Amino acid sequence: MDNPLRLEVIVASVRPERFAPVVADWFVRTARSDTAFDTGVIDLAHTPLPTELSVTPEVLAYRERLAAADAFVAVTSEYNHGYPAALKTALDSAKHEWRAKPIGFVGYGGLSGGLRAIEQLRQVVAEIHMVSIRETVSFHRAKRRFDDGGETADGAAIDAAQRLLRQLAWWGRHLRTARATDPYPG
Questions:
Q1: What's the pTM?
Q2: DSSP alpha helices (H): ranges in 78-131?
Q3: CA geometry: angle at 121 spanning 185 and 114, to 5°?
Q4: Among 16, 22, 151, 175, fewest CB within 10 Å belongs to which?
Q5: What single string gives the DSSP state of each residue in 130-148?
């Protein structure tokens, strides 16, 4: 593609000994194989965002990166039926940079596969004027779904990732054009 969409994959979990890098690395490899995207990673474990939402040089750099993006995917675990606090801080640390941009979700966890966290996130991203992609990737009992090399044979997740990326590309292209020709009024 001549003008690929800038996709930022946000890794939400910041816990020590987290499983997030396994899931995120798999998804990033999948996204990078799609020529519709130029894919970067924002790992919240390595992105110092103040929980009191003050503006620091790191927050300004984070906002610039978000502003340059055309689309996002959040790779999120589920803790106590919700998403990680670091992801809420990441969402609340910016405002205009999110608007009129699509976001997809890759969830993982125990029996729910992160789906309860994703449903909560859909409400939050609607409030910050984002478009939530309907297709979701979900890994139930995630640690059992990946081999030692970080690959998965979970056919449903592999198929869902391809569908998510196709939908994300469609929304990303159309919203990028709309933002350029008729800026979002939010």
A1: 0.97
A2: 85-92, 115-127
A3: 155
A4: 16
A5: -EEEEEEEEEETGGGSB-T
Beta partners for residue 72, in sequence order: 8, 103
CATH numeric code, 5-181? 3.40.50.360
Give dist(CA 77, CA 69) in Å, integer.
Answer: 23
Which tokens go with 24? Answer: 């995120």
| Per-residue pLDDT tens digits for 79-94 | 999 999 999 999 999 9
Domain layout of the chain by residue ranges: 5-181
Structure tokens at 128: 């910050």
Rounded (10°) angle between helices 155-181 and 20-32: 60
Distance CA 41, CA 24 (A): 9
